[in-house]
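dumping this here before i forget
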Amino acid sequence: MSVPTRRRRWFTVCALTASAALVAIPPSAASGRSPSPFGARVLAQLAKERVQSVGAMSPHEAGDGGNEADEIAEGADQYAEARTSPGVVAPGAYGAAWNSLANLPSAGGRWHNITNLPYNSDDPRYRDVDSNSSGGSGNVTGRMAAVAADDDGYVYAGSAGGGVWRSGSGGGHWQPISDRLPAQSTGALALDGAGRLWLGTGEATTNSDAYLGSGVYVLTHPHHGAFSVRSRVGGSELESTTIHELRFGGGRVWAATSEGVWSHSTGDLRGPWKLEFAPNPDYLPKGSKAHDAAAPYKNIANDIAIDPKDPSKVVLAVGWRSGDDYNGFYTRVNGAWTRITSGLGDLPADAANVGNVTFARSADGSRYYAIDQSPQQLSTNPDSGLEGIYVAPSGSPTGPWTKIADYKGLAADNSALTTAGYMPGVQAWYNQFLAVDPADPQHLYAGLEEVYETKDGGTTWSTVGPYWNFPFSCWSIDPSRQTGSCSQTTHSDQHGVAIGSYHGKPYVYVGNDGGIYKRPVDGAQDASGHATDWTSLNDGTIDTLQYYSVGIGKDLDHGGVSVTGGLQDNGQSILRGNDTVMGSDFGGDGGDTLTDPANGCDIAQEYVYLAVQVTQNCAVNDGSWSTDPTKATSYSVAPPDNATSEARFIAPLTTDLKNGSTWVAGGRHIWVQTHGYAIRSGSEWTSVHDLGKGRTATAVAASGGKVYAAWCGPCNNQGFARGIAVGNADGTGWHDIGLPVDGTVPNRYLSGFAVDPHNADHVFLTVSGFSRAWTEGPGAGVGHVFESTDGGTTWKDVSANLPDVPSDSALLTADGGLAVATDLGVVYRAPGRTTWQRVGSLPAVAVLQLKASPDGGTLYAATHGRGIYTVQLRDLR
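structure:
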């Protein structure tokens, strides 16, 4: 069966990072459009949507005119909305919250990581219709934003939300080395000439929800020890920024940040950073336009190229990837930074065609390379945003430059992305890397959605790391053949690259949305130019998995419990009672999860926008459905709001506390179905309440037939509004609760409910975002946890000493304790108490959902960057 007719689901790239010090302001603050990365349920559908919607906005419109067409692109924006609405969040909010959390008393208990196991995305047990198993990615973990490697076998992997990890064996056997920092979001990693490891915090993919960092840190002897707050370079100048690249030259380190280009001495690490260039300084913090909604996009720097023959000659690549008047290349002329308007050759000089840029220099200084993403292409070309890959054969970053690749040529080199609407470079603003073989200036690796290699300076290219294997004739769904005769490829969506040696043999290391992979620099290729020797380094000792949810049920076949969870760009993981390797039974982005406590193979997994799939056998399948559709063991049961996109990207889904066969889902409507895991069609849902046009559910809960539904609409900071509706699962008694802007409950995103199982009128509410101390928006108010004893009619703020940090969900324990998941960990209020304690000691990582084990004795925490953790509730006091 051909790939387009199969129900394969795209590895969407929502780029949701959640463990850093400071949150970025979403680009929708400026325009209302989502600037987030692409994704689609099926490749053909994605291509169709992109072709239809391209050109709808000007590339120079304030904030974002990038016109990312796919509706799933809203996902990253919505994640940010929950943390920033109703206004702009001031720098320092997460740092203050981290300090407050660290000062809380301990509730006792110790977290245990249960997902520190290999996660095989190609697990042959799960070849069902909604799985991406057999795509060829092998073992995966969470997104890697940056990579560094030396010639002593040491490799350093910087994750989007789970910190920096070290291997001393050429990859594998990883150890975390940044857990003591207040930011776990990586922007850049670089080794200097003295062997020191430099870390720039704050992931710089310019997606709307990438978290800002806390500056630059140095590890003097990176083979040993770990980063600490004392190892920060300079002062606080680079707090609340993202860092795209760190480059060295002339005794200085240069940082391309979201607030311009800065430099610092590499000899004396004390003293402040020097601001070298900001194209629009009025928009910087303390500037006259610092609070303008477009401020985060007015001083974006992407990379720095330093002339190896004369370090005083520096070229800056500056610009917002969706286009702005300041976009371009700059160099110093008579002491002043000046836009380069001519002499670049094929490399564009006009603002419309300079967006996200990455440089790479050959070790001998003879060549410079560059990737350029074009705002104009992004806005007008449905196939790709890539302007091209270029070389400066003189070795000077001022050029002249010659184009050596474009998206059509790359697609023709046996790429997996050959469908109109989704071709190489369609996400060039998000996916970019370049690396030159130190031993050969004409041997270059380029990363976009796939990995490309040229050994002749760009005359010919090979797709050595195709997106996946499904389009190729070598592919097979047969579990005994893994992916047929196709070799393992890398996970899609490339971000970081490094070349280093292990036992004297050079390897190239790539970081992407599935973790980190390597292959020999002199590696082998098949007749199609696909590499035959990729090795996944995601061996289970590195856990940076980005969970949205977790579900737990008894494993009736093997004993113990089955644990599942929805993940950013890595589908849904499943860990059976006897597993030593996790499998993946659903693909795409895994959202919310329902699991029958009595049977862990009864699972409902939300993809996006309430695209719910259900299985009653853990989705175990040998792929026989591909020739006999009746043998499928998972079923699409999406409520109708999925078809109209009237649901949040990660939409709320729950079961009734008193009746596990009654499910409640929230989009524009509140949907109820009463067939439990036996549901087989989306037509079995009933709309019991219409929240109203423009409104969408943000949280739902139910107990004994009583349903609570929180909503927002509009959901961004342009007129943000929220509310709560309460009614019954049979459709009766629905009414809105009055929550005035200046009322007790703040005008912020309402993120979760916890209903007392003994009294449905007793309910707790969690609120995301930051208080008015940090949020410049109407009615931001104070508080993050509220309690009602009259069915939501009135509310009392019970936040007490809870840190001012976005709160994501809550769980009432069997004995009346209350656990709350926040963007920086878990807090707990013991039964009968009014104050909060910190549970265990997690790194600065977001916890998005809490669930209890079937026996009620274990608390499960789904973190968005460090996997799933458990703690025994009896140990909390």
